[in-house]
């Protein structure tokens, strides 16, 4: 007698499932292969032939931290799984807005799989739920034959700005990256990149060719974008020096556009993929505007990490061409200029060499034998963004509704409960050079956001 719900005829669907039954083939070990194989089945692997390839049997070691890891005894094969969960509340002092809402949000839920298939070849795959969108975040292969020159191919973080390429999202001092990067940075893209470390580990570089679609998946034009990054740690080998973890460098990216503005609406604290209720809009391009022609941005950075202190600053500038749909041959080269300075200071004595997960000296524990309050960190950031007046004078946006210059101040603190759980509390005050639209008949020159976030990362 067959179990309930299982069809007795090959190739038919099982009741209630609608899923075609699969034909299974013997595996190399003489058993039955997993479902999902081809139909009809391919010839089984055999040691007498090179194709189909036989599977290797490896002993593995299992460990936790960071993430769950399976590693073969000979270190040829690695599989890691990481998880990032962020849950937060964003509340605005200026309520009743049409353009943003006080909200509980899930800005990020990421599942990450990484490792290598033989020592020279690495892989990374991640899926993300951000606010209300699920997407494939990263998928790439690394070819690591020499640390001085490695190759990455797929969709990944492009080499533009220190805060994006170097600083991991789970280790940021502030909850989100700068207003310049979130609105004008290249973000992730598909392409090929060479990168490596030179001169006795004092210089890191990366340069690649990409589709040029900001945080996109397909190319908008035949032309390709070029991005490049360099970072110099002149005292990297002076162990114990106050400047051991001092960084300086820059980056650039550019190409030719032909697409709708992306993002169409610029916001204070939302990545390009973010939901419209989660950040304050300060400028919206008119519906008849396109990005047409060259776009070039450059960035200079400096970062210093010394004992408990972290200080990072970047200055970014460049131009992007726009045109109106009825006058595509007449282009406006719009200048953009921005900078930010941010700092974090660990009050409880932990030291740092960069941004990343903090391991508290005394993780939070109320047991008298293991009493601890975790790690506490004061944070602050000041940033400025200036978009050329041409955005209004050339009809790209409405000066009666929007601003082209803003100043943002962040003050807050982080509580690292242990190395896996972190609370972030941030007050963000934004000032606009023009009143910005908030609701029908309403506008405001300032905005105050209060953000509280809990993060789990392993």
Automatic annotation (TrEMBL):
UniProt cross-references to Pfam families, sorted A to Z: Porin_O_P
Region (Disordered) location: 1-50
InterPro entries: Porin_dom_sf, Porin_O/P
Name of protein: Porin
